[in-house]
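In response to reviewer comment 3 from the previous cycle, which asked for concrete evidence that the modeling workflow produces usable outputs, we include below a single protein chain processed end to end. The sequence was submitted unchanged, and the resulting structure tokens are shown without manual editing.
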Amino acid sequence: MSNFSKKINTNWKPVVGITMGDYNGIGPEIILKTLEDSRILQLCTPVIYASMKVLSRYRRLLNLPEWFIHQVKSIDEITHKKVNLVNCFSLQEEVEPGKVTPAAGEAAFLCLEQATKDLLRERLDAVVTCPINKKNIQNEHFQYPGHTEYFADNTGQSDYLMFMIHERIKVAVATGHVPIKEVASVLNEEKLRTKLQLMIESLRKDFAVLKPRIAVLGLNPHAGDEGLIGDEEIRIIRPVIKDLKRQGHLVFGPYPADGFFAQHHYTKFDAVLAMYHDQGLIPFKSIAGFEGVNFTAGLPVVRTSPDHGTAYEIAGKGIADPTSLLHALFWACDIAKIRRFEHLIEISD
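The workflow returned the following structure tokens.
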């Protein structure tokens, strides 16, 4: 939780939607485990988008504690002192933990679709999405690589940032889900500048860091070694850093990725921009562990998610760890609160 958020003295609690994801994955289990602690209600009003039948079957299967869930037909009927559930579909097939089925994909989309509608109507202050299977969810209304692109399209945003967040480290990537062999060809000054500007704005708007310090990693081994092992650092990365510094931003680099993380230099910065997926996410997940969270920065809405997938291999076994979902919920509440009271940032700082 940010220092600014801790300073806010308010009883305001956000309404946070939680989408079920693929019901044959671990989504239902981690939702039940996360929300069984009634102290969550002191933080927010949770609204689960799922099927009560699915959650009931997992409760029985895993012998999870019974606690009250307030079932409603729409967001307009929720109660603010309870965990609410909007029934989004009628379960027609058996729940089959660990199995990929078209029905589970269709159900995941219906939950996501309803939560998105309520989010865009400003009936939700944030949404937390549980893992989907990116293949079985595909349909005429969902033709995206994942949640991030879906929310960007539905909010009309062409520029956005996959921001991995944790109290100790925050990492984003310049090129996202791109094959390694294509990374160098898609990296350019415009893309890099846009990602850095999104990161700067998000750190200010979503994390109340008024003057963020950002580290930029190099693309090549040893950050190119002055052009001996690639020249992208010289041609692309350095000019963008120099330009942003000229504008008054605290942007530094490019740093060789291995030494940067090995020597814990990330602790000196508010965030790190990696050039490609694994360069940033391997160290992030090693440091954050189960507490890592995926946040989509650059959108007019707040969306977070656990930093893991459907985990079919352990679905229905009762061993799924809800920690990442719990932290995704914490961060969603925190960011929603900061955005709501952002006019107090300069006064509070």
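DSSP finds twelve helices and twelve strands in the chain. We consider this sufficient to address the reviewer's concern, and the full set will be provided in the supplementary archive.
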